[in-house]
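Tutorial sheet, problem 5. The two components below are modelled jointly, 375 residues in total.
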Amino acid sequence: MSQEQSSQDPIGAVFDSLARARRASHLSVAASVRDSARGDLRAAAHTLEATKAGLVASGDEAGANRILAVELAVNGWALELDMWDALDEKRHEDAWNLLMQAQQQANGAQRVDPVAPEYPFDVQHRLALECLLFPPQAFLSSGMVVHKASCSICGSDYDLCPHVKGYAYGGDMCVRCIEKADLLEVSIVKDPADKRCVATFDGIDPFTLLPRDDAG
Amino acid sequence: MIEVRDFVDVEDRSKALGLSLLGDVTFLPRHFADAGDADMLVSETDGLDLGKLLHDQGIDVGIAKRDGETLPLIVENDAFVHLPDLLITGLGSASVTVILGVVANYVYNRLVGMFSNPQVKFSIVTKAPDGGYKRISYEGPVEGLSQLKDAIENVAGTE
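Model answer (structure tokens):
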């Protein structure tokens, strides 16, 4: 997908919305402008949903997967706009979690459509925001033995179905849904699978570095 | 970096642990070489996913079973790919090339966006002409994984 597509067509309008969201996604921008950009992204999400449904119906799996990548990009920018609101309101933990979700969306978009030029920028941009806006964090990571898991694509036993988690099928990302597992251990790690699992030490808020009760 | 080391005798070790390893290509369970008893053996979740992707490329990977049952599957929620050792006992070099390509793509796909220069650790166990087993390990950037092919052919004497 290219940002240069005409804004006459629905997908071109989606990329216009993404461009407006990128412009509005800064701390100094007025909340009302961010709200407006978020509204555009919501409209874009509806357009993408309808477009993807049409592609799936016509059997164009590759096209549906490219639309999935755009959907992930749209979600990512909406989450980033939410992050600035949370920072404005000094909800630091919420802001962190929103940024981490936005990072995951950008990573997903790049994975699903690795040749599109926009998504690596989103990935690098959000990694940079993480370093600029928050102090370095330590994370918790769990190890578990999985006894039962199902596939989000076909609903079958994940061990037996042909789908692979993190890959796109017919416009949807495959997720392994763990239904029964035993926890083995929890470790403190630098590179977790999910950066929302932030470790807290000695009652210090990991974002403000103040004691939890005073963190605001 | 590539490292070649002696490995335990796979047949003897499988018998001692009560494991059946079927096929020319099999993922070995974690702790295969050093487990005190078979209860320590677990399968790596990345092996399950790679097995599916290799099947799509026409390469069926055997699963280690104990008393007919698959081993417990371990999932670790960190940002790394935990690749099991791959036992190869009878494949042509073209298939080895396919395997290494699938592994490289899988690792890249998992780590893209998380690390600027995705790294991989992957080992292949194969039989040398003298009957002993060797573990050939690669550690480094994903792009360099194909170097394993020459090392495997050197060890197996199939150049």
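Marking note: The first helix of chain A runs from residue 10 to 24. Full credit if you identified this.
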